[in-house]
Amino acid sequence: MRFGFRSLKWRIAAWTALILLSMQIGALLLFAQIGRTSALAEVGIQLDTGNRVFARLIDQRSAQLAQAARVLAADYGFRDALLSRDRATIESALDNHGSRIGAALMLLIGLDGRVIGAHPPRPDAIELGTVRSLIDEAGKEGGANGFQFLDGALYQVVVVPVRAPVAVAWVVIGFPADEVFVQDLKRLTGLEVSLKFESAAQAQAMIASTLALALQPALLHTPSLESMELDSVEYAGRVHVIEADDTGRVTAVLQLSLARALQPWNKLYRDWTGLSIAATLLMLLASVWVGRTIASPVTRLAQFARRVEGGDYAAPPRSESGDEIAQLADAFGVMTDAIASREARISELAYCDALTGLPNRVRFMAWLEQSLQAVQLSGQPLALLSFDIDRFKLINDTLGHGFGDRVLHEVGQRLLALELSGDAGCGCGGRDDEDERAPMRSATARLGGDEFAVLLPAADLAAALTVAERVANALEQPMNVQGQLVDLRASIGIALYPQHATDAAELIRCADVAMYKAKRGIDGVEVYDPAHHERNAARLSLLTELRQAVEGHELVLFYQPKYAFQASDELHVEALVRWIHPQRGFISPMDFIPFAEQTGYIRTITHWVMNESIRQCAQWQRSGRKVHIGLNLSARDLLQPELPAQFCALLERHACRADWITLEITESAVLDDPAKALANLEHLRATGCRLSIDDYGTGYSSLSYVRQMPVQELKIDRSFVMNLITQPDDEIIVRSTIELAHNMGLTVTAEGVETEAVLQRLAELGCDLAQGYFICRPLGVAELETWLQTSPWARAGHHQRALADETQPD
Which residues contact 518 (CB under 8 A, 6 or more apart)? Predict the structure, then answer.
């Protein structure tokens, strides 16, 4: 038997016992809390009842004393003796009456406050103390009672007048508030009764108490009399003030021990504790038995599972119990049979592409690794071809993925027919011993999607090019798929060992780089050139640095002026972004703008350009210069829903008028998503800015969209303007465009003006603005200010004046 929590049966026993023990402990704590709460409630009820009984007893005793005093004061003989000053008769009457009612003190006090008679007789004078206040009260009310101190002892005192017929004396009867008094109250109320006196002048003093003498000092020093602990015994209490005046206060403390109230609950608590212990032990034994019952079959099944892991699929021994464990064992037997039958199929599919019948990437990579090891030992070369089908996405999008799968199947059959592999089929069902024969064998595989590869051990570049030509010719033959003729073309990249790479991953990467280079060419076959990778890496590095350029203020704006053929005091410029790299220097926009558009980072650059252009325009306006700034928007920018709101926010931030800003867009930007683009253009036009169609004439649907676009300007592409003088067709296009734009109420700007002859011809054709290197190259802000001061082209209409000067006679 194995002990420890790693064993299932002991974990079952331990958790079961822990759960039961937690429940029992919780129940015990709950019972203790309930018992104490109930006992406190019961004690509270008894205290409240005892307090009311105590108050009633005090009142009744006072009433009895007052009645006894009135009987004595009304006695004829007693009043006669008082009037005759018969002291012996007075004292005898006081003695008889006091003995009859059990009074401890009988006094007859004259109106002058002197004691006329007393019982028991006293040789010395009696200090009346605060009794005089009761006499004054009795004079007003006809009687008074209360607890007063006489000769240092506390008495319950009653004062009544002796009338003949007016008050001639006062009868004072007192009963001591001593141990006998509090014991009587305890018998009547069932509570512990303690009388104590407290005043500001002296410490608290115990007058009388039913508590044990040893507990009385603790009672005097207990801060809370409602709940206290005396000699490890809990008491609950109530405080009853029975007398209070300027000299101090007499209070009665009524107490009741909690021990009696808790006694039945303590018994229940002890009984439940014993029952819990017995139940826990019993459950522990039961859980051990249950754990062994469950764990033993599970242990046997675990041993069987380990055998299955090692490849032994023999069914587990059947259990004779017929319970759920036996059913589980039978299910294991059925499962292992299914696993055994599927393992062969899985082994086959793990290395074979089911669609084409070719080896898959996993098998191909294994062959490539083994072939590289072999050629490294033999010193022979090795070639790798990587190719995919051009425009295959168009086939999927147009004819569906099912049709695309049939095309890939046909491609696989054609590759198998070329017999480029050492075997005619997949060869995927073999085991490791077959893999040992794989090295130094040609192989064709489908790597994924429409991507394929051919491994050519012991092949140089010439052999690789021959195989690439065979593959290209085989795939270019028209395919008849479901009655549909399909023309395919493959782009093939070639990488060689050891010239290009020495490991499998790097060799495939080199072949892929060459394949993508082949896609951009016309031959369809490309051999890897390290320069391809270096250019790609440089561009990728450049794109990474571009993200830092915006934050590092490496981007700057240049402004290229436009020449206005009509005289005006306003200047038109186009904002062009430039990148001044701290190490590489000036970087052409053609080297980073296309990549920024592909990755979407163009949005950040456009926002920066808009912010800088609007800021500069506002600054020129404040300095008195009337400068219109045009800036370019890409297709990605135009399709942003938030573009109009961003543009308005920048105008408000820099306090710039919108009509001084011209946003230039290309036709292709609208063609990507016409509905969304035109909606954004309407929103931008509503801001008050000007809109211009850039590179007009290079699109495919110019006229159909120009009439829908809310633009104010057309910019004729430089390809038509540069050869305006030498190419008559270009002049026809330019003249027609100018006439069309003017008929539509649009301004025309000609780009690419490189010669004065072109500028003069544009003036004759009625062009509005001209832009090109002949007028001015893009300038920084400082250089532009200088150009405005010194260049004759900065003054609108200069060219017309120059022409006019040339026509004047000498």
Answer: 491, 492, 493, 524, 525, 526
Residue 465 in any domain: the answer is yes
Distance CA 744, CA 749 (A): 15
Helix (H, G, I), strand (E, B) or coil at 178: coil
**What is the reported pLDDT for 235?**
80
* Tens of pLDDT, residues 446-485: 888 889 999 999 889 999 999 999 999 998 888 888 888 8
Residues 411/452, Cβ–Cβ less than 8 Å: yes
Are β-strands 690-696 and 661-666 bridged in parallel, bridged antiparallel, or unpaired? parallel
- CB count, 10 Å around CB of 331? 10
Residue ranges in the chain whose pLDDT is less than 50: 1-4, 423-425, 428-439, 701, 797-810
**Scanning the structure block, which residue is given the tokens 């002859």?**
757
Percent of the chain with pLDDT over 90: 20
Same-domain check for residues 328 and 371: no
CB 570: neighbour CB atoms within 10 A? 11
Tokens matching residue 715: 């910019």
The torsion angles phi and psi of 360, rounded to 5 degrees, stand at -95, -175
Q: How far apart are CA 698 and CA 177, in angstroms?
A: 123
Domain membership of residue 565 as a residue range: 555-807
Q: What is the pLDDT at residue 94?
A: 79
What are the tens digits of pLDDT across the range 313-356?
A: 666 556 555 556 656 666 766 777 677 677 766 766 777 888 88
What is the distance between the alpha carbons of residues 566 and 797, in angstroms, rounded to a whole number? Answer: 5
- Determine contact, residues 557/578, Cβ cutoff 8 Å: yes
Q: What CATH number has the domain bearing residue 480? A: 3.30.70.270
Q: For residue range 163-207, list pLDDT tens digits in order.
A: 877 888 888 888 888 888 888 888 888 788 888 888 776 767 888
Contact present, 8 and 275 (Cβ < 8 Å): no
Residue type, 571: L
603 and 672 in a single domain? The answer is yes
Residues 60 and 89 placed together within one structural domain of the fold:
yes
State the pLDDT at residue 664.
92
pLDDT of 353 reads 85
Interatomic CA distance for residues 666 and 717, integer angstroms: 10
Question: Measured on CA atoms in the order 217, 218, 224, 228, is the torsion positive or negative?
Answer: negative
pLDDT for position 422: 55
Kindly state whether residues 321 and 380 are assigned to the same domain. no
- Co-location of 626 and 687 in the same domain: yes
Number of domains observed in the structure of the chain: 4
633 CB-near residues (< 8 Å, 6+ apart): 606, 643, 663, 664, 665, 669
Assess contact for 351 and 361: CB atoms under 8 A: no
Report pLDDT for 660: 95
What one-letter code names the amino acid at 382?
L
- Answer yes or no: is 666 within a domain: yes
Phi, psi of 169 (to 5 degrees): -165, 175
Task: Round to whole Å and give the CA distance between 229 and 257.
Answer: 9
The CATH number of the domain holding residue 106 is: 3.30.450.20
Helix or strand (DSSP H, E) at 154: strand 153-163
Q: How many C-beta atoms lie closer than 10 Å to residue 317's C-beta?
A: 12
Q: Among residues 303, 322, 346, which one ends one of the domains? A: 346
Q: How many helices (H) and strands (E) does the chain have?
A: 27, 26
Q: Where are the alpha helices (DSSP H) in 655-777?
A: 667-672, 674-686, 702-706, 718-721, 728-743, 756-765
9 inside domain: no
Helical packing angle, 392-399 and 401-417, nearest 10°: 140
> Quick check: is 158 in a domain?
yes
Q: Give the rounded percent of residues in the chain with a pLDDT score beyond 70.
A: 81
Q: Smallest Cα–Cα separation from 418: which of 371, 366, 388, 456?
A: 456
Separation between Cα atoms, residue 234 and residue 220, nearest integer Å: 16
